[in-house]
TrEMBL record:
UniProt name for this protein: Carrier domain-containing protein
InterPro entries linked to this entry: ACP-like_sf (IPR036736), PP-bd_ACP (IPR009081)
Organism from which the protein derives: Phytohabitans aurantiacus
Superkingdom of origin: Bacteria
Domain Carrier: 2-80
């Protein structure tokens, strides 16, 4: 597990108002929705990811690619602005 996975799992836990633990978010390989992340939770998660990592998640993007912590990490690797 990398630091980014831990950070993203923490954002998932916060977005779910504690309904999903960091450990559960890290362990889920199919869908955060299966753990109970609601549509409002996804909105909060996307907003938190945008703020934290400086990316813009476009509405036209396929949001199913953001449905697990590893998928979120992969999305950030391809979407994050370069650091100097």
């Amino acid at each position: 597990m990398t630091d980014i996975h831990q950070e993203l799992a923490t954002l998932v836990a916060e977005a779910s108002d504690g309904q999903i633990s960091v450990a559960e978010a890290l362990a889920e390989s199919e869908s955060l929705g299966l753990l109970g992340l609601t549509s409002m939770g996804y909105v909060r998660l996307i907003q938190a990811v945008e703020r934290r990592y400086g990316v813009a998640v476009e509405v036209d993007d396929d949001l199913s690619t953001l449905d697990t912590v590893p998928a979120l990490a992969a999305y950030l690797r391809t979407s994050a602005p370069p650091t100097s």
